[in-house]
Amino acid sequence: MSGSGAPGPGAAPCRFAHYFVLCGIDAESGLEPDELAVLYKWLEADLHGKNSDTADKTSGENFDQSPLRRTFKSKVLAHYPQNIEWNPFDQDAVNMLCMPKGLSFRTQADNRDPQLHSFIITREDGSRTYGFVLTFYEEVTSKQICTAMQTLYQMHNAEQYSSVCASSSCSMDSLASSIDEGDATSLAKLQRYNSYDISRDTLYVSKCICLITPLPFMQACKKFLIQLYKAVTSQQPPPLPLESYIHNILYEVPLPPPGRSLKFYGVYEPIICQRPGPNELPLSDYPLREVFELLGLENLVQVFTCVLLEMQILLYSQDYQRLMTVAEGITTLLFPFQWQHVYVPILPASLLHFLDAPVPYLMGLQSKEGTDRSKLELPQEANLCFVDIDNHFIELPEEFPQFPNKLEFIQEISEVLLQFGIPPEGNLHCSNSATKLKNLVLSDLVNDKKNGNIPSNAFNMYELLKGNETIARLQALAKRTGVTMEKMTITAPLVEKDKDGKLPCEEVELRDYKLNVQLREVFANRFTQMFADYEAFVIQAAPDMESWLTNREQMQNFDKASFLSDQPEPYLPFLSHFIETQMFATFIDNKIISQWEEKDPFLRVFDSRIEKIRLYNVRAPALRTSNYQKCSTLKEAAQSIEQRLMKIDHTAIHPHLLDMKIGQGKYEQGFFPKLQSDVLATGPTNNNRWASRSTTAQRRKDRLRQHSEHIGLDNDLREKYMQEARSLGKNLRQPKLSDLSPAVIAQTNWKFVEGLLKECRMKTKRMLVEKMGHEAVELGHGEANITGLEENTLIASLCDLLERIWSHGLQVKQGKSALWSHLLQYQEREEKQEHSAESPVAVGTERRKSDTGITLPTLRVSLIQDMRHVQNMSEIKTDVGRARAWIRLSLEKKLLSQHLKQLLSNQALAKKLYKRYAFLRCEEEREQFLYHLLSLNAVDYFCFTSVFTTIMIPYRSVIIPIKKLSNAITTSNPWICVSGELGDTGVMQIPKNHLEMTFECQNLGKLTTVQIGHDNSGLLAKWLVDCVMVRNEITGHTYKFPCGRWLGKGVDDGSLERILIGELVSSTSDEELGKQCRTPPQQKSPTTARRLSITSLTGKNTKPNAGQIQEGIGEAVNNIVKHFHKPEKERGSLTILLCGENGLVAALEQVFHHGFKSARIFHKNVFIWDFIEKAVAYFETSDQIGDNEEALLLQRSSCKTFCHYVNAINTAPRNIGKDGKFQILVCLGTRDHLLSQWIPLLAECPPITRMYEENALLRDRMTVNSLIRVLQTLQDFNIILEGSLIKGVDV
Questions:
Q1: So what's the pLDDT on residue 645?
Q2: How sure is the predictor about 399, in pLDDT bands with cuts at 50, 70 and 90?
């Protein structure tokens, strides 16, 4: 059935063209309205929620439109050969893409210039076929069709007339007055242009010729089709019948081998094409010049970034070829990555429902004349990049990171553009006349070059340019400077004169090729620099292909965290998003598969480039700087193309006469002949010079196949695995263009629903693994923090996924965020119900009880309340922003799944908003989706608090005293100051006789410390505080600041203020909270080690032994070292590591307490600080005697600083107790790297013998030396202390 004459099974894939196709009107079936267009109208009516019956009643013959403007059904009239097995002919898809609007009719009064466009068909496995189409107009000879058109016009005019009468409400006055205003002329004009009279007018209908090829040789196919068209329209018949040329290109022209050029023959002139070598960038024949002219450099880089981040990209233009050129141009620049999602550069009208696809896509939509962007109803815009090509305008998604080194990158590209005389801002920024020129001439002249056969157009261009201000200014300037500029050679590239046999048009083409390759080199060089050491982070875990494919989903194949920690800071926002994309995942998959299979061609070229960089750049660390390195291979790249085009490597067989029946191949000017199918159905049986080459390749493939079967993995199964592995996360590569029954549409939607669910599973799992991984590693650290950056990326992609789920299957779109508009409608309904019946929502009046009976009231869980919090944030200006803030808040409160479940529980609303096939109305999938989201409650996120840093937040604080031993309320005036990572509240007086207060201040971030104190006035001044609780009233995060010490003169260590270190309380049930509020057991509170006065309370008075104490010091120092080895954004709170439960201060206290002589002397407490003061007194009075001068000087300066620090702490204007002073001393000593100098001084001073027993750690020389060594490891770090720790101490 296929080209049966084709030699050997492998020969055919090496053919230049696979099919030649002819589409047009089928004279037998006559005028049929385009059913697909009807379906489209029905879908559109459905989209706007109109009644679909009304849309359908005229069966597609839309009477508002004049018959010449309507779409009629086109048909594939012929295609040769009938079929080839490796690329089966898809009739519906080809018909739809050759004539995306169906047939169009014209009369002699209309413009009938031929148009060129191309298209692409992507098969299920991601492989592509290209089509190149020339559409021209042919006179209609069938009497029947002409009469049908006349009849349609009569019906149309009658309809129009009656509607005009109806609209003017038959009042003659109004009709007359409207005619007076000159409407009559325009009406007459309209009728003249939009009418058809069989006796007066000639009717023309569109027809197209198309080549379908395996590779995008756009220039060559364009020339071949243009020459074919010229042969049909020229007065002399072509040298040979057209069959000869078509047979030649189908069967006798091979693909040029990689790295070579090939010459073959069209009807009138030879055509040259070339193919890049194995180490060059892959073939791309679409002129990037046009892409840059159409979009402008700045816009192009922004769209390019959106494509890299896999957003939804919609291109919009009247011209199909522009859509194709921009889509192909941008995807070409992605090298070494490849777009992995839906790719439909020309979306036929009948497939508009695909814009509803809840997946990343790159689609092109043809704009109708006279419609502007505002008329376009798009299902979802939260993540859409809209590119209006004709108007040089783009709409970007709200927040996305910029491409690294964007400015230098743009600078480098514009240098390349300027060398070729292309303005970087694109070519549409000219005056009106130039834009007019563009629209008139660009599509014809620039795209087709017309080969100069219509001189009037060239003249037209000059005429138009005369009116151009810029040209006029240039001319004036030239005159002033004495340069003569009479002859303007504007038309040069369009004229087909040859001086020495070389066509100027080839010059233009060569320049385009050179520009293409140089621009692509600049883009490729960026990725080579950015990912130069990607290989080091690829995780090669599987022993063989089979095990890798079966466990692909569970395995991590790229060490993202290490890769990011290695990158320059400015790159991180972009890279952290980019390495989450499907195109990056596929790139890494290909790298892993290349161990067992032949390398993917893109990967092979990329890897060889990285090798080259390594050879030149011996100093590898240079790769990690953010210094911009320009591309250095521009010249070579352009030269290799130029050489190929100048020196032709291969020439194909000339077209020749075929063995045709007599009398066929008749020539009639202006009509494409009926081709003789038997000679075109099969190729020649012999003389195939390029068969042997490919048959050997085929033999090699067969050998490989047998080999893999021997290995024991069934080939079909393996192929299935490969497909699954490659399509992981890609839901649907390509819409089926051929069959558009409702069943197929439903099935497509079902694929989307499954895909969304899978994506949700993957994303939530990834967010969990990331967090859990970090938390597991850091359990000893009191708090876990995945890279803020990576967390942000994952949350942003979760927000994006939710937006896509909410916009799938929407009935009517309102606002840019589908999720927020659903929430608003829900809020409106709930608030109505609340007003009608003040419903008893779980207000949670019961309070958190502690044993003291003092409590934090329970926060009410309310979806509406969380919405109001977001609505009150004046910083957020858009719906998309509000939806994202609400998702972040719900995630931080661990309520996302619960809130969404509540939102979806209103089924009446869901039915009103969503079509039956929408994801949110698929019960089972929706339940699974909520379950996946529920799993995120296992980890703590601060994604709201850490992002909205400037908002005002209400806080509530409660002080919980220990009532058994002290009065609940003090008579003195208590105060409190709360500090967090982003700032503090300042000192706030607590209202008299109150233990609870609420206050509002700018977001403090995660809370770290609370300072609490009082002024010691009144009779009951002594106060025993158990803890302070503080809660963020928006996010519900509750922090506990344990104290367990007295505040008051003459009790405990005499402190009137204390610094308490916070810990986040997990949101557990109320009675557990009560338990937590009692004095915590020994290891819980950071201050317990110093609770010498109230040990009887805890009941535990077990002293740690010397080994445990030394271990504690090692652990505390180690945690600080680890803290500084993390990237800055990942570090937790240093305050906790210094003063927290297992912090450095507590560990050193244990050292100083060990062997401390009886804590009570004459019923008076003795504290470490008493020992410190005695030491200071000794240092200040005595002169030390040292062995040598140098040691003495060093010792003296250490003593001096020590005394200075202690005195500064003692004289500070703060009522801090003795233990608090010790804490400040340790913090300052750590900050200024002095601890290791002070410890030996204290260990040597005489007071130690009076105050410490013989076996104390501080009196053991070996222990002291090891302690000094451990503390010296902190010398390298720049330690910055939180303000609250050392407030008022001036050293």
A1: 81
A2: confident
- The per-residue pLDDT for range 1216-1227, each reduced to its tens digit, is 888 889 999 999
- Mean pLDDT score of the chain: 76
Which helix (H) or strand (E) segment is 650 a member of? strand 650-651
pLDDT-derived band at 101, boundaries 50, 70, 90: confident
* Distance separating alpha carbons of residues 321 and 313, to the nearest angstrom: 17
pLDDT number for residue 999: 92
- Which residues, including other chains, have CB under 8 Å from residue 1061's CB and lie 6 or more apart? 1008, 1009, 1041, 1042, 1086, 1135, 1136, 1139, 1140, 1141, 1143
Coil vs helix vs strand at 852:
coil
What is the layout of strands, in order, in the sheet containing 650-651? 270-274, 261-265, 650-651
What is the rounded radius of gyration, in angstroms, for the C-alpha atoms of the chain? Answer: 40
Choose among 1038, 980, 978, 986: nearest CA to 1011.
978
Neighbours of 643 (CB within 10 A): 11
- CA proximity to 777, closest of 762, 787, 791: 787
Instruction: Write b or e for each residue in 979-1016: b if 16 or more Cβ atoms lie within 10 A of its Cβ, otherwise e.
Output: bbbbebbeeeebeeeebbeeeebebbbbbbbbbbbbeb
Whether residue 470 has pLDDT greater than 70: no
CB 343 within 8 A of CB 366: no
99 φ/ψ angles, rounded to the nearest 5 degrees: -130, 75
What string of DSSP letters covers 855-879? --BPPP--HHHHHHHHHT-TT--SH
Which DSSP letter does residue 353 get? G
Rounded distance between C-alpha atoms, residue 104 and residue 208, angstroms: 11
User: How many other C-beta atoms can be found within 10 angstroms of the C-beta atom of residue 227?
Assistant: 18
652 in Cβ contact with 265 (< 8 Å): yes
Instruction: Give the DSSP letter of residue 620.
Output: G
Cis preceding linkage at 621, omega within 30: no
pLDDT category at 711 given cuts 50, 70, 90 is: very low
Contacting residues for 162 by C-beta, under 8 A, at least 6 apart = none
Q: What residues pair up with 119 in beta bridges, in sequence order?
A: 131
Give per-residue pLDDT as tens, 206-241.
999 999 998 989 889 999 999 999 988 888 888 888
Confidence of residue 383 (pLDDT cuts 50, 70, 90): confident
- pTM of this structure: 0.69
- Among residues 1060, 1140, 1131, 1176, which one has the least CA distance to residue 1277? 1131
Q: How far is CA 342 from CA 326, 590, 730, 734, 738, in A?
A: 16, 20, 9, 5, 16
- Cα dihedral angle (1181, 1186, 1191, 1193), rounded to 10 degrees? 40
Bridging pattern class, strands 983-984 and 974-980: antiparallel
State the greatest distance between any 2 C-alpha atoms of the chain, in Å, as a whole number.
133
pLDDT in tens, 1223-1281: 999 999 999 999 988 999 888 888 888 888 888 888 888 999 999 999 999 888 888 88
Give 309's pLDDT tier (boundaries 50, 70, 90): very high
Per-residue confidence band for 977, with pLDDT thresholds at 50, 70 and 90: very high
d(CA 927, CA 757): 10
Nearest to 948 by CA among 865, 1008, 1035: 1035
Q: Which helix (H) or strand (E) holds 899?
A: helix 896-905
Q: Which residue has the tokens 């899978």?
A: 758
Distance, in Å, from the CA atom of 263 to the CA atom of 419, rounded to the nearest integer, reads 29
Q: In whole angstroms, give the CA distance from residue 35 to residue 59.
A: 8
DSSP alpha helix (H) spans, 333-468: 406-419, 432-437, 447-448, 455-466
Tell me the DSSP string of 913-954. HB-TTSGGG-HHHHHHHHHHHHGGGGS---TTTTT-TTSEEE
CA distances, 452 to each of 496, 853, 1247, 1291 (Å): 5, 95, 106, 87
